[in-house]
Amino acid sequence: MKTIAFLFIFTCLFTLAPVTAHEIVQLTDDIESIFLAPQWSPDGEKLVYVSSPGWHQANIWIMDSDGNNKTQITSGLTGFGFDYPWSSDGSKIFYSSIKYWIMPGSWTYDLNTEERKRIDRDFDKPVFSTDYLSAIYSVIFKKVYSGSSDGKSKITSLQWVNESKLFIVEDGGDTQKLWLIDSDGTNKSLLTILSGGNTRFLWQPEGNSIIYVSKDSGNYDIWIMDSDGSGKKQLTSTPEDEYAMGIAFSPDGSKIVYASRNTIDRTNLSSFEGFFTTVWTMDTDGTNKTKLILPNASIYFYPSWSPDGQKIAFERRSDVGRYDVVVIKADGSDSAILTADIRGGAFPKWSPKGDKIAFVSLKDEKTDISIIILDEKWRSAQSEAIASLPAIPQGNGKKSPGFTISLVMMAFLIALELQKITR
Fold first, then answer.
1. What is the mean pLDDT of residues 375-389?
2. Are 129 and 98 in contact (CB under 8 A)?
3. Which residue in 54, 100, 156, 362 is a FRET match for 218, CA 20 to 30 A apart?
4. Angle at CA 108, nearest 5°, toward 206 and 197?
5. Cα–chain center distance at 162
6. What value, to the nearest 5°, has the Cα angle with vertex 189 and ends 184 and 190?
7. CATH architecture of 2-422
8. Helices in 105-258 by DSSP H: which ranges?
């Protein structure tokens, strides 16, 4: 109860204006279900997402941006966490899978050939999963992959560097090995080895730097380094730990948005962990820090930049336990709630076309994948990369079935376990 209560105890000090001029369109079935982690294809034409028809299943699906042509591409217990699973040309998707509840693995799926390749066979002691799968494992078996406790390692981050290379973080608990590897699992190259408490590694778009959250200075702050592990530099220094799930590079790699923890009066803490977050941006060298959202009693998660880098979407969890999608201008001059007229929303992702935001919509103990069709004020210019992208194949799949699983019993527990793992 201590951790659950933490999500609901904050009192709002800063008011975001509700906005209703845009349109919200639900894309998945209007029945009791669990849908998670929508991610746009690089051309903005398709969405990949995870659906769960039961406790022992989490399947990956692809659909058109209007909700048509739903195609299931995995079965069992699979997912891609909160990493971006698409290769830069949109031809492949990475995912993690737990087969028969015994052997986790990391894979790539080719949308052109429908071929799957396992990419983690050549690692030490291969017990791998993203934090997302670790969270599901924890919910079901009441056990968290700790790395250091059982001598096994896990993949905690998978990111595409380009259409053929993946950046992988292998976490052994006390050490983290950073790798580059071809998408077919060959040509593995060790970049560097870090020791101590380090998490949330992100490769810089259009660059060769890596940001990460480290406690080298005593608590968790944001650091940056070159991809070979040299040039380490601390970017933030605050009394509280930086919040790992509130960090993201801008599309051009020149800016970082982050959610910095702030302490509530700890003398009154009895049944919850007392922190909320303030939203900031800064340059990649740590300069030009700009406060976008004043300290308030909400927590901001999962930032998603607009393609032109002028706006940022967040999931906001408020003092009354409400989840909403909010948007903030990157200079802090304006902000708005986009899901004020529905039950709520989570996990927002801005389309590369700039005109939509995909998110998980909440309604009556279930979730759906929905999109917000943005009005002129919040629309963005599209990604410059779209013009050069090839068409993404649809593949052969089956129509999405109905799903019957409780939001309360799954989504909240997954979020809580993720909080434990990523802190």
1. 84
2. yes
3. 156
4. 65
5. 19
6. 135
7. 6 Propeller (2.120)
8. 131-141
Burial class (CB in 10 A: 0-12, 13-18, 19+), 292: buried
Asked if 134 contacts 145 with a C-beta cutoff of 8 angstroms, the reply is yes
- What's the DSSP call for residue 381? P
Contacts of 68 (CB under 8 A, 6+ apart): none
Q: What is the pLDDT of residue 196?
A: 81
Average confidence (pLDDT) over 222-246: 87
Residue type, 96: S
Q: Give the span between the Cα atoms of 398 and 378, in whole angstroms.
A: 35
- The CA distance from 208 to 243, in Å, is 23
Question: Measured between alpha carbons, how far is 227 from 394 in angstroms, rounded to an integer?
Answer: 35
Altogether, the residues listed in the chain come to a count of 423
Tokens read off for 297: 């009693």
Contacts of 20 (CB under 8 A, 6+ apart): 340, 341
Q: What is the pLDDT of residue 53?
A: 75
58-78 residue pLDDT tens: 889 999 999 999 999 988 778
Domains of the chain by residue range: 2-422
d(CA 386, CA 357): 17
Closest C-alpha among 279, 312, 281 to residue 293: 279
Cα separation, 2 vs 6, in Å, equals: 6
57, 58, 62, 68 alpha-carbon torsion, rounded to 10°:
60
| Packing angle of the helix pair 131-141, 407-422 (nearest 10 deg) | 120
Residue 132 has pLDDT above 70, yes or no: no
Rounded distance, CA 304 to CA 38, Å?
A: 12
